[in-house]
């Protein structure tokens, strides 16, 4: 019997998602306050992100994740002029010079492998090995290895089983008929949307060996007649045409801003006139002061991928630059949301 992708859970798993999503945040905080003595310096030198990068020798993307995490915790104030200033609680408890300093408390964690990883990522911008593995592969390269791709795809499939229902409800599909799930992994989002919207057909666009895993799972769910698979690398290969909805679900957060811009441009070029692009992700708020759970999740993305959690304001700018209009953001579940924009007819 095929799986019922419209069946809802009886309880709320938010806390369970948050433990996994925020797992790396403490190591990023430790790297900053112990190894960089970040708060002590910033307390004396309110600075822009560019100034912070210049002083500590940091790369902008990971430094932005660090500053956003501190802002979401209330340890940094983002001022209207673009400077970041230390708040009283951080000055009192996270500055090495304070008599109330808790920096030595965190120093007992300073030799954790993830702390060393974060120092390297902050200074180089290059992602570390997934889960600090010693094989030398970052997440993007590891996904070309069959064993890792199978393990990671299974992880994202079980996560998406709950999240996909919220996406299916949040996107205004209307009378649109064909959805392309870009970097769609196991196909759980394409399958769930097809189950909730019987007038839609869908396709998953992902690279080997993930494409084969997706085809098998789609068949097991009894949806092979409505959900197909296109094998390809969405960075380099030609995109399938004839689709009036493009979905990026937990994909853009794996890439730095120039790559995100390029992917949105490719989407705009391939999408049918009047079509929708839907970004499903964990979003930082427009002024980059939270939410805390998303700022914590951004730490693991910064560590292991080339991306981060982007702010709604950042996505609006990137969508407009690609040619999309009328962006609308809606919260969904488990600290996620959907931003939808339209290609002109």
3D structure, described in words:
This protein is of the alpha/beta class. The chain has 2 domains: 14-141, Winged helix-like DNA-binding domain superfamily/Winged helix DNA-binding domain (Arc Repressor Mutant, subunit A, Orthogonal Bundle); 145-342, Vaccinia Virus protein VP39 (Rossmann fold). The protein contains 15 helices and 9 strands. The protein has helices at residues 14-21, 25-35, 38-44, 49-56, 60-72, 88-93, 103-107, 113-124, 139-142, 146-170, 188-196, 210-220, 257-270, 292-304, 312-322; strands at residues 76-78, 84-86, 178-182, 201-206, 227-231, 245-249, 276-281, 325-331, 337-342. Strands 5-4-3-6-7-9-8 form a 7-stranded mixed beta sheet, sandwiched between helices. α4 (49-56) packs across α5 (60-72) and α10 (146-170) runs parallel beside α11. The radius of gyration is 21 Å and the shape is globular. The model has no long low-confidence stretch (mean pLDDT 95).
């Amino acid at each position: 019997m095929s799986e019922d992708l419209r069946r809802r859970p009886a309880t709320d798993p938010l806390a369970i998602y948050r433990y996994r999503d925020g797992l790396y945040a403490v190591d990023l905080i430790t790297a900053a306050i112990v190894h960089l003595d970040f708060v002590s310096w910033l307390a004396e030198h309110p600075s822009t992100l560019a100034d912070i990068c210049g002083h500590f020798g940091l790369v902008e993307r990971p430094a932005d994740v660090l500053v956003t995490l501190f802002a979401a915790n209330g340890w940094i104030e983002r001022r209207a002029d673009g400077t970041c200033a230390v708040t009283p609680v951080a000055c009192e408890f996270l500055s090495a010079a304070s008599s109330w300093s808790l920096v030595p408390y965190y120093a007992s964690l300073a030799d954790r492998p993830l702390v060393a990883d974060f120092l390297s990522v902050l200074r180089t911008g290059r992602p570390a090995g997934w889960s600090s593995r010693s094989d030398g592969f970052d997440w993007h390269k590891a996904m070309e290895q069959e064993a890792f791709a199978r393990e990671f795809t299974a992880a994202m499939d079980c996560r998406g089983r709950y999240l996909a229902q919220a996406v299916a409800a949040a996107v205004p599909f209307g009378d649109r008929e064909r959805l392309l799930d870009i970097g769609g992994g196991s196909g759980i989002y394409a399958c769930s949307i097809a189950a909730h919207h019987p007038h839609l057909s869908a396709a998953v666009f992902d690279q080997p060996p993930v494409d084969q895993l997706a085809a098998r799972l789609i068949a097991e769910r009894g949806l092979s007649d409505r959900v197909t698979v296109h094998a390809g690398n969405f960075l380099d290969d030609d995109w399938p045409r004839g689709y009036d909805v493009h979905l990026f679900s937990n994909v853009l957060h794996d890439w730095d801003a120039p790559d995100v811009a390029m992917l949105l441009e490719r989407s705009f070029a391939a999408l049918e006139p009047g079509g929708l692009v839907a970004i499903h992700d964990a979003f930082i708020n427009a002024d980059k002061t939270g939410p805390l759970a998303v700022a914590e999740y951004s730490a693991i993305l910064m560590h292991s991928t080339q991306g981060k959690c982007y702010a709604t304001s950042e996505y609006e700018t990137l969508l407009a630059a690609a040619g999309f209009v009328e962006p609308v953001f809606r919260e969904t579940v488990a600290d996620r949301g959907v931003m939808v924009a339209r290609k002109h007819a």
